[in-house]
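fold-stage: in
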Amino acid sequence: MQTINEKPKICTKEWFAAELRKSNRELKQLRKQVADEERERKSSQVELFKLRSRNLNLKNQNESLKKQIKDLSKLPDQLQEVIFENKKLAKELNRRKGTENPYGLSTPSSKQVNKKNSTKDNQKKRGGGKKGHKGYGKKDFTEEEADRLFILKGEKPN
């Protein structure tokens, strides 16, 4: 809009040419900016795709590692079971070899496999009476000889 005090602009051919050149320069700059922005957008899309792919791979690795940790957390319990089984088998082996008594320290001398002061020859001999020997053991009481008679539940009297 022109005000009253302003002089009207004279539009000449040179002025139009200058304005056209100025507009073309601005248009060229804007097109260059648009092209730069488009290249940046494409580059960002490629980078986004790579990051999403990497993220998916890391999630898969994370799940795999969680599973491995879960499996590894069971190892101490399994180790304890194996140690217990090993001790049990070692004790059984020692008992069979004769280096350990069946009831440990509380084994009565009659049940000990190898007595401390016995010779190798005596250790090899079988205990008990001789074969074919009649033997005399303690005999049962008859009812008349007994002071008291108890009948236990679940047992049939004779």
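fold-stage: in (second)
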Amino acid sequence: MKLNKLALQNFRAFYAYNDKLKFDNKSVLIYGENGSGKSSIFWALHAFVHYYNDEDKSKSYFERDSEKSLLNLFNATEDGFIKITFDDEAEYTYDKDGITDGIKTQLTNLSRVKSFLTYKDLLGLDMMHSYENELFARKILLELLTGDISLTNLAGTTLDARERLQRMELLLKFFNEITYFKNLEDFKNQLFSDIEDLSFLYSDDVGEFEIEDKEGDGTGLEFNAISEDSFQELTELGKRVITFINYYNSIFEDDTTYSDFIDNWEGSLEEIKKYVYGNDDLNEKAEMYRYIDPGDGNTSLAVYIDNIQTTIEDIEENIIDPSFTTKFNSIFSDTDTVEKLYNDWKTIRDAIDIKINLMNTGATKINTLLEKLGYSSLDVTISIDYGSSKILNFDVKFNGEDVEHHKFLNEAKLSAINLAFYFSAILSYAKPDIPILVLDDLLISLDMGNRTKVLDLIVDQDLFEGYQLFILTHERNFFEMAKRKFDFVQKGQWEYFEMYIDTRDTNEKPLITKSLTYLEKAEKYLVKNEYEIAGNFLRKEAENFCRSFLPKKYHFSNDCSPYLLNTLIDKSIDYAKNAGLPDLLFNKLNEHREFVLNPTSHDSYDVPKYRQEIKDCLETLKELRKIKIRPFLKKGEILEFELVDKDGSDVYKFEIKLEDDFRLLKIGDDTVISKGMVNYWIMRNGSYLNGNKENSITHKNTTLKKLYEDIYKTSNMAKSSNYWDEIIIQRTGEKIKTIIEE
């Protein structure tokens, strides 16, 4: 199910009814200036998808008097709603009365997967090394690693997404306490043993302060102080007990809050803390009282000593709640209940372990995605330590050396790790019935070079085939760059929108327009007989096409200044010719340079612009845009093929390392691979020519087709003459033709 249309009324920035967002079941790129309502679209989709997480809360978004209301501040008369139409024309409306029936299962399953991502979430992933941000990071981790897990209450009813997430958060905390026990019964026994036996408070490591009278006549008093180790042990015991209480309440939906018990425990710990050996305040008091004689009527010392004695003697009574102890025991006397607790624990833990393994070793593992992002120098392994406050461990190597990634790596590399982690987790799930991913200003912290790498990842058909992506940005330059990338690799698979603030009425509202390409703008002005304007847009389109068609190294001169259109057209003609593409369209483009694409067309009327010339140029550029171009073989990839010499006596193996990115170019029925630099080595009967590999290297700027065919002519021609059938990718053992067949 893909989203076809989105209509909004009286929701956040959308004051009035707006149905301009027609997606046509395609992926969507939206540019919105600040304040234009872009974030309202993000939250409309988010609220719709997560409606069943908490139905009462979700309904309150459309209630005027609710503190959670998301209604527009200035529209007090119309009801608010979100309306989504899917590719099967099924329409669902979400308003104050709820959401149209028939989509609960799909939305519930989708809400379990973290399909909405902002730059804040990426920052949150990077915070996982930080104890202070543990809870925020833990929540993101849970959503990513356990999205496809279903949990039930004791009655067998499936928990909704909100209850499920709460249960998992408690479970993960609970893991910290029971990891080192074989089962919950062992945990319970140890916990009760610790609660009922507080003798460690009176053990040999109890510190002592001796208080003497000022006369020094040997009548001094002494009192005990609790050791720091003992107090820490008591504190940890308290954490375990309170953790279990909270988990117990979640599992059994018990109305008893045990708040008095928790308050009593925590209050006792605060009181006991005053008498911990090493406490500066205690030391000061001891020093002060050292020279005070209780017999002189100093009651403060007597009261102080009495407080110490009372606290220590009554400690067991103060921190143990008999009613809770009884209930605690009754829980573990029920075999079914214990089994339910243990199975929940095991379900979550096993699922996380499976997901972690996939992210370390699966087809979409983190390191594969890092390589696609251009960071093959990074090697990341993740693991879970259930007994640690850090929860998630990133073991990162940079160029083979262990590094503390959050201290050593720059922001671009950290963002790459976080993106790889996120996409690896998402792609490890089975694709949901509503396969959407919504990314809001995700790349805000990256420069344009690194953003290009992420866009390359997004258009990778091996990763996101079948997904409908929604990318929102407030940066115009990124919007235009992404449009070029998507039109270059996935022509016809994206819809583009632009959003602005409409201030023509008293109340501001979003103005949404479809983002026209230069070709569409040229055609618009051609129809209006505005030939000069049409010509200018055709020139922009020609330059845009050339930059999309050419690898980046052909965009600039030796002094790094960008080439102008004339040079770009020359470079495109040469590039097409070298790759073996038919040159008819490129020759037509060249012919248009003199008139329509003349550099002076912006500000000169000396060269006449005739309707037919504009029309012909428009059609030429439309045909050129039909050329399908996609990344094919990356720089560094190693290929190989074998041929036998004409005599049939020697087997020659050719090992080819690509020193450029090679592209797949398709026009009509013709499919070719672009030209580029290669290094290759020749082996005869298993041995390198010239004795070793270093002395056998050959450099060439060529196409794979020409390289193979030139060598093939010198062979016995027993193998196929078609290079697609014989050249193999060394890393996978697959023939290169299998890539274009996928």
